[in-house]
Amino acid sequence: MKIPRAISALIDSFQKLPGIGPKTAQRLTYYLLHVPQIELDNFSDAVSNLKKETTLCSTCRNIGESDPCLICSDLSRDISTILVVEQPLDVLAFEKTGKYKGLYHVL
């Protein structure tokens, strides 16, 4: 059975994401065929705006909406402590704990 081009293209796009194999890509694609158009439009807009509305902080290399990021701009942070992390997801994990009040440097 020949798969419609739009479906095949989306499956291929999903497979390029880390941790998404062929079956998961197919499930995601066929799921999206059944969501209301407004939800699909919102999803599409969110993906489209991802790079447009985020920036890399020139101070710590974290991802944020401004440069410097909100963490580097926060005057209540402990500037005497800098935690070196591998990626922005690590910053998110530490921030979720609410325990660390210093600054970061993302490699």
UniProtKB/TrEMBL annotation:
<dbReference type="Pfam" id="PF13662">
    <property type="entry name" value="Toprim_4"/>
</dbReference>
<dbReference type="GO" id="GO:0006281">
    <property type="term" value="P:DNA repair"/>
</dbReference>
<keyword id="KW-0234">DNA repair</keyword>
<dbReference type="InterPro" id="IPR006171">
    <property type="entry name" value="TOPRIM_dom"/>
</dbReference>
<dbReference type="GO" id="GO:0008270">
    <property type="term" value="F:zinc ion binding"/>
</dbReference>
<keyword id="KW-0863">Zinc-finger</keyword>
<dbReference type="GO" id="GO:0006310">
    <property type="term" value="P:DNA recombination"/>
</dbReference>
<dbReference type="InterPro" id="IPR000093">
    <property type="entry name" value="DNA_Rcmb_RecR"/>
</dbReference>
<protein>
    <submittedName>
        <fullName>Recombination protein RecR</fullName>
    </submittedName>
</protein>
<keyword id="KW-0227">DNA damage</keyword>
<feature type="domain" description="Toprim">
    <location>
        <begin position="80"/>
        <end position="107"/>
    </location>
</feature>
<keyword id="KW-0233">DNA recombination</keyword>
<dbReference type="Pfam" id="PF02132">
    <property type="entry name" value="RecR_ZnF"/>
</dbReference>
<dbReference type="GO" id="GO:0003677">
    <property type="term" value="F:DNA binding"/>
</dbReference>
<dbReference type="InterPro" id="IPR023627">
    <property type="entry name" value="Rcmb_RecR"/>
</dbReference>
<dbReference type="Pfam" id="PF21176">
    <property type="entry name" value="RecR_HhH"/>
</dbReference>
<keyword id="KW-0479">Metal-binding</keyword>
<keyword id="KW-0862">Zinc</keyword>
<dbReference type="InterPro" id="IPR015967">
    <property type="entry name" value="Rcmb_RecR_Znf"/>
</dbReference>
